[in-house]
Give the backbone structure.
Amino acid sequence: MTKTIFVLNGPNLNMLGKREPGIYGGKTLADIEADCRAAGTELGLTIDFRQSNHEGTLVDWLHEAADKAAGVAFNAGAYTHTSVALHDAIRAISPIPVIEVHISNVHAREEFRHTSMIAPAAKGVICGFGPHSYILALQALKSITQ
Ligand code: DQA
């Protein structure tokens, strides 16, 4: 049986492709989903890919991951920098590993993006590799989950 990995996406990531292409590139979220599914097939992982603009929905999906997923790749978008609720949800589902993912290098951007509420609760952080950040997270989850 293959392991299921949740790939969760937060606010405004549904706008990829149109949204600030100089920062995020030209791929849509559907393109990134297709890339994740292809990587999942290669790695022997089942990918459950979702996006929401609502913080509480993301909390609910993290809780759901505790029962259904071996790990989570999580691009929380702007909630990364603000959400105690997402920090607590990641801690609540321990030991399910959650990897924080960003398309852009948040540390090379505005100061308010340098703080992550998610990182202290996450297993690790991958940022700055464009949409390939998601694939790196899937490879990491494959190697750290049994
Ligand atoms: C992002 C970085 C965040 O700071 C921003 O709010 C996003 C996207 C990224 O993938 O680079 O929405 O998470």
Notes: Residues 12, 75, 77-78, 80, 102-104, 106, 113 surround DQA (CB under 6 Å). The two ends are 12 Å apart (CA to CA).
